[in-house]
Amino acid sequence: MSVALARTEHDSGGDAPPLLIAHGLFGSARNWGVIARRLSDRGPVTAVDMRNHGNSPWADSHGYADLAEDLAAIAGPGWDVLGHSMGGKAAMMLALTRPGKVRRLIVADIAPAAYGHSQSHLIAAMRALDLKGIASRSEADDRLAPLVPDATTRAFLLQSLDIKGRCWRLNLDLLDREMDIVTGWPGHDGRFEGPTLFLTGAESDYVKPEHREHIRELFPKARFARIPGAGHWLHAQKPREFEASVRVFLEAN
């Protein structure tokens, strides 16, 4: 059953088809604010908080069929859809199960495949953070540093921390329980015949050469592009290059 996702909408008056943006694990619509605003010059852009993230409702499941139905409840016929990582898998599932909803599909740094890694160590770190008396994000960053040494990862996680409420805007228990589902891929025998771009970071190994055969089985019009100097969080590391690649693809004949 779908849930009503919180959304952030941008529209600078362009007449291109609407663009729907789905973030990755532990993210939110706010991660995409600058890119969404800049892309809204060509047409309406809607960035969502996925279920169990941000301001969206918590639910007792986090499977990709569920996430795709959440997106389907927002997207009208012929929207463009962009998803990163977990959001990319949800976007792929939407295109495979509800192809009439999708005109062009952009999948950012993820493949339709199961991955062996887990992000539960980050959940453990967030759970372990002592939120008592925290008055600022910088203070939270100092406390989280021994648990998450990488500053970029800490900054990303802390965007989901409600400082005033001293709580995470993430359903950590559910996401931990369903981590194998999040990092997995349920498989699907459908095909999406529309234009599809798999946009990856050149320094990321999430989309490997051995994934391409299966990608083309599901998405026969798939194209592949890489952004130099970017890893898995390519939209944050190289935002202008990412935006330019998205524009070129969406505006192609």
What are the defining features of this structure?
253 residues; alpha/beta; Rossmann fold; 2 domains; 7-stranded mixed β-sheet; two-stranded antiparallel sheet; 11 helices; 9 strands; 16% strand
CATH fold-level name of the largest domain: Rossmann fold
Tell me the fraction of residues in β-strands, as a range: 15-25%
Overall average residue pLDDT: 96
Low-confidence stretches: none
CATH superfamily of the largest domain: Alpha/Beta hydrolase fold, catalytic domain
Would you report the number of β strands? 9
Helix and strand succession? Answer: EEHEHEHEHHHEEHHEHEHH
Tally the helices. Answer: 11
Shape: globular
Indicate the percent of residues in helices.
25-40%
Radius of gyration: 17 Å
Structural class: alpha/beta
CATH A-level architecture of the largest domain: 3-Layer(aba) Sandwich
Quickly name the level 1 CATH class of the largest domain: Alpha Beta
Task: Give the strand line-up of the largest sheet.
Answer: 1-3-2-4-5-8-9
Q: What is the first-to-last residue Cα distance?
A: 36 Å
Largest sheet: 7 strands, mixed
Number of domains: 2
Plain-language structure description:
With 253 residues, the chain is of the alpha/beta class. The protein folds into 2 domains: 7-115 and 184-250, Rossmann fold (3-Layer(aba) Sandwich), CATH 3.40.50; 120-176, no CATH class. It is 34% helix and 16% strand. It has 11 helices and 9 strands. The chain has helices spanning 33-39, 64-72, 86-97, 120-128, 137-144, 151-158, 172-177, 179-183, 212-218, 234-237, 239-250, and strands at 7-10, 19-22, 45-48, 79-84, 102-108, 161-162, 167-168, 196-201, 222-227. The strands form 2 sheets. It has a 7-stranded mixed sheet, sandwiched between helices. The protein has a two-stranded antiparallel sheet with strand order 6-7. Strand 4, helix 3 and strand 5 form a beta-alpha-beta unit. The longest helix is centred in the middle third of the chain and has 12 residues, at 86-97. It is globular and about 55 Å long. The protein starts with 6 loop residues before the first strand and ends with a helix. The mean pLDDT is 96.
